[in-house]
Structures are given as C-alpha cells and as structure tokens.
C-alpha cells in the first residue's frame, strides 16, 4: 500500500532548496580566465562575422561551440559577456534543478522531503560552476537529461555535442544502443545535423576536432594524475566518496547483466576512463561534475528499491531488517554526502595554491574579473604573447595579435608540439624563443626565459603594477603603448639609452 504524499509541503520544500541553491550560485559568481577566450571569439563573431581569435587565423581555440555562439548574442543586446555568461549559467542551473525536481516528483519516494533535490542543491561545486562564465553547467544539464530521460535522449545528447566535444561519446553510444530507432525522422535529423556540424568544422577550421584537443588532451596517458584528480574529489566530499564508488559499481553490474541502459552506463564509465587517462583537469572537480547527478540518481534509485522491498516478507533478510531500522540515517547520509565539504587546499589553517597541481580557480579570482573597468585604452597595434591567466587582458586591451603561449589554445602549430607531462594539466607546453620570434611578439606577460633578463614596461591595472616584458621595440610601443595612461616605459627607455639607441628605434631584445 502506497502512502499518500504531502504534495504541498513537498513542493514548498523543493522551491525553498532551489532558491537557496540559486542564491548560493549567484553569491559565488565569478569569471574564470578561460572564459575570456570564448569572449574574444564571440565578440569577433558579432563584430566581423568571423569566428576567430586573431584576424584571418581560423583556429578553433575553444571547446564550447554552442556556448560561444550564444555569448555573441549578448553583444547584440549590448550586455557585457561577464554578466551574460553568468546569466546563461544560472539559466542552465535552474533548468537542471527543475528537471531533477520533475524526475523526483515522478518517483514518489518522499512523502515530505525532496531528498534527491536537496542532495543536488547542497553540492557546492554546482554553485561554483553555475556562475563561472564557463559552459560547464549547460553541459551538465544536457548530459543529465540524456542519461536520465530516454524520451529526449537524442536531443539532449545532440545539444551536449554542440556544447562540448565529450558529448559525442554519449551521442555515439546512444546511436549504437537504439540503432533500430534511427530511421525515425527525429533521430535521423540529429545525426544529419551533427554530420553537417563536423563538415562545417573541418571546412572552417581545417580540423575534425577543436584545437583545444591538441593543446590540452593530446599528450598521452597521465593516469597517475587522473587518480589524484579522483582522490582530490574524495578529499573534498568524503561522504560522497562512498556514493561515488557504490554507483560506479552499479554501472559495472548493469553492464555485466546487460540491463536496459547498459550501453549508456558503459558510456559513463568510458567518460570516467577518459578523465583518468588525460589526468583530469587543473580545476578541481570540473570534469567530474557532468556525471555526478546521474551517479546520485543511481544511488537514489537504490534507496527506492530498498524502501520498496520493506513491504515484502520474502525480502525480510538481514540487510533489509538493518535498513528498516536505519532508514532515516541512510537518507540523512545521502543528503549530507554533498553538504559535507572539506577544502583540500587548507593545510594547518593556511591556504595552499594547489594540491598536486589541482586547484580552485574561484578562490584565486573570486569576483575580480566580472568588472571590465580599469584596463585602460586598447593597444591595437601590439602583438603580445600571453598565458591562460592573462586572457582577460587580451579581451580588454584588444591587441592586433595575441599568442596563447601556455599550450597554444589559439595557435594550431604550437598546440601540436610535444608537451611536458606535468601535474598541472593544461599548462604543459614547451615554449621556445623561436616561437616568439616567428610570431614577431612585442610584449610577453610573463618571462619564461629569466636568463634573458628582458626590460619591462609597468602596466598599472587597478592600482597593481604588473611587469610586462619587452621583446621587440618599434613605434607601436614607443609612440603607442608608452603614451597611454597606466603604462610606464621608464625602464625600457633607460635600457635603450644604455645601448645608445633612440626610444623610437626598432630593436629586438630577443
């Protein structure tokens, strides 16, 4: 006999916890430096109609096609991309919570408490990546819908493919798992649209995969770092580690027994294997977030089964007798598994920069990059080299050419060069002096060649003096950058005088 649920209280509590989570996401709003790469592409798409980072260089230096296209709409309505990306992230988060509310409402487990929804809303890293400027939460939304709701699986995974390349893993397995259905017009249309998208990508950018694949993922196996990435997650959410391991076990059981969705469950394991293989990410937990709602959903269904079996005397085994006595504790453990968060970057009461190359970007940037003021005038005649963390300067200063010199996100030639295997994934390029010479770089935002002792120009950003290293002098520096407010060229001018050179001379320090 199924007891009646108190729907009114269930809905009120659901609304309350959702409002709480949305407010937490908004309170923690921030912008990651990587987001500014997409901002540059989206601005150029709006202003010039070309999806490029540097003029006439057709390189797909982003891994979030749909997100970048959507960001360009913000420029059309004169909305700053920092604000617009936060808005899109919040819309994705609200949509995810609504979807999971609908899912739980149909499962008829809780008479009062929306247990599954509370569990999801208390997960801190959902708050963090809902308002980071990145596409993470939209990808979480599409993957979660696709894994949990078979009726819209094709459409959800189609959008996931456009949002991130990993979406093709899930879409491809969906194609395999439902091959007989693919002659239906709806399913066939998704595959044809994706084929057209791949053709477009190849014709426009000259590659079948984004340049980010070569820049960040094409460095071979780094499984040890991948396990450290999982351990970092377990250190952050120690109670959830049990749910994670148990749910992964359920995936293996599903494959072994070949249950209804075993192929899609295999896809989740493949995705997890991919994370282990590439070594995860330098941003803690970001790559795991897309599959966590599904893993939580699997465990929640286990609780449903245990609860249902209490009504059958044949199931009156030792396990179910123990569960019946501790049912409230099990539910409480499930809820608290996401609420209990321990920051791995706190050591003896002090913050450390990272744990084995894994960090929390939000703690570093906080909300400092949301405001686009304080950058000064553009420097349109300058060619600069920058590293990922300085992408916001490139967006605001608008140089004529910018070279991402960390791993070559926006440079197809540099991206394909050999990488160094390091703990900090995505920061392992081999920058050589020749790379800077070939691109005729004027300024570099960090001196990776300290033995060269390059002269500096001091850039005053919001009261913070930042040393910018000079590689090449010409009129665009002496009569351009050096005459703009916030830029102090005394040191480099003094260096020229020591060498008996005019400040208007064309000279290279390389």
Q: How does this structure look, described?
A:
The protein has 510 residues and is an alpha+beta fold. It is 54% helix and 6% strand. It is built from 23 helices and ten strands. The strands form three sheets. The chain has a six-stranded mixed beta sheet with strand order 4-3-5-7-6-9. Strand 6 (456-461) and strand 7 form a beta hairpin. The longest helix has 27 residues, at 81-107. The relative contact order is 0.10.
Q: What is the rounded distance between the termini?
A: 81 Å
What is Rg?
26 Å
Q: Averaged pLDDT, please?
A: 91
Query: Helical region count?
Result: 23
In spatial order, strands of the major sheet run: 4-3-5-7-6-9
Largest sheet descriptor: 6 strands, mixed
Given as residue ranges, the uncertain stretches (5+ residues, pLDDT < 50) are: none
Percent range of helical residues: 40-55%
Shape: elongated
β-strand amount: 5-15%
**Alpha-beta content class:** alpha+beta
**How many β strands by DSSP?**
10
SSE topology:
Blueprint: H1 7-27, H2 35-48, H3 65-76, H4 81-107, H5 115-121, H6 124-130, H7 136-148, H8 153-163, H9 167-177, H10 185-205, H11 211-217, H12 223-236, H13 240-257, H14 262-278, H15 292-309, H16 318-325, H17 327-339, E1 346-347, E2 350-351, H18 361-365, E3 383-386, H19 391-397, E4 401-404, H20 412-415, H21 433-438, E5 443-444, E6 456-461, E7 464-470, E8 472-473, H22 475-478, E9 487-488, H23 490-498, E10 507-508
Parallel strand pairs: 3-4, 3-5
Antiparallel strand pairs: 1-2, 5-7, 6-7, 6-9, 8-10
Helix pairs in contact: 1-4, 1-6, 2-3, 2-19, 4-5, 4-6, 4-7, 5-17, 7-8, 8-9, 8-10, 9-14, 12-14, 13-14, 13-15
């Amino acid at each position: 006999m199924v007891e009646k649920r108190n729907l009114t209280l269930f809905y009120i509590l659901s609304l309350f916890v959702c409002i709480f989570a949305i407010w937490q996401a908004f309170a923690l709003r921030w912008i990651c430096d990587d987001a500014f790469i997409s901002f540059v592409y989206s601005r150029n798409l709006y202003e010039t109609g070309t999806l490029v980072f540097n003029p006439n260089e057709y390189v797909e230096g982003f891994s979030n096609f749909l997100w970048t296209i959507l960001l360009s709409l913000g420029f059309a309505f004169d909305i700053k991309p920092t604000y617009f990306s936060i808005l899109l992230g919040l819309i994705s988060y609200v949509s995810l919570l609504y979807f999971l509310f609908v899912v739980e409402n149909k499962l008829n487990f809780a008479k009062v408490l929306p247990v599954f929804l509370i569990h999801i809303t208390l997960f801190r890293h959902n708050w963090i990546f809902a308002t980071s400027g990145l596409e993470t939460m939209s990808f979480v939304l599409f993957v979660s819908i696709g894994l949990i709701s078979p009726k819209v699986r094709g459409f959800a995974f189609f959008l996931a493919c456009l949002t991130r390349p990993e979406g093709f893993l899930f879409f491809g397995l969906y194609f395999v798992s439902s091959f007989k259905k693919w002659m239906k017009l709806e399913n066939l249309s998704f595959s044809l649209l994706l084929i057209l998208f791949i053709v477009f990508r190849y014709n426009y950018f000259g590659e079948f995969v984004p340049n980010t694949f070569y820049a960040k993922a094409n460095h071979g196996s780094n499984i040890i770092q991948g396990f450290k990435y999982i351990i970092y997650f377990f250190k952050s959410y120690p109670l959830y580690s049990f749910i994670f391991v148990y749910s992964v076990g359920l995936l293996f059981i599903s494959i072994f027994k070949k249950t209804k969705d075993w192929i899609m469950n295999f896809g989740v394991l493949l995705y997890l294997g991919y994370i282990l293989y590439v070594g995860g990410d330098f941003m803690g937990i970001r790559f795991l977030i897309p599959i966590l709602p599904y893993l939580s959903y699997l465990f929640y269904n286990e609780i449903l089964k245990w609860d249902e079996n209490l009504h059958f005397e044949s199931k009156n085994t030792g396990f179910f007798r123990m569960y019946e006595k501790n049912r409230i504790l099990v539910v409480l453990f499930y809820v608290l598994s996401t609420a209990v968060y321990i920051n791995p970057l706190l050591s003896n009461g002090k913050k450390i920069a990272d744990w084995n190359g894994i960090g929390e970007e939000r703690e570093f940037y906080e909300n400092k990059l949301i405001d686009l003021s304080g950058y000064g005038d553009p420097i349109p005649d300058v060619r600069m080299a920058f590293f990922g963390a300085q992408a916001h300067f490139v967006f605001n200063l608008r140089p004529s050419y910018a070279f991402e010199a960390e791993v070559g996100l926006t440079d197809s030639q540099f991206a394909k060069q050999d990488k160094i295997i390091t703990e900090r994934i995505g920061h392992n390029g081999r920058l050589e002096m020749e790379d800077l010479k070939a691109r005729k770089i004027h300024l570099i935002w960090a001196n990776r060649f300290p033995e060269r002792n390059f002269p500096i120009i001091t850039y005053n950003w919001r009261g913070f003096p930042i040393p910018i290293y000079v590689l090449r002098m010409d009129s665009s520096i002496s009569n351009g950058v050096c005459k703009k407010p916030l830029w102090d060229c005394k040191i480099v001018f003094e260096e020229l005088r020591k060498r008996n050179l005019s400040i208007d001379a064309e000279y290279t320090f390389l």
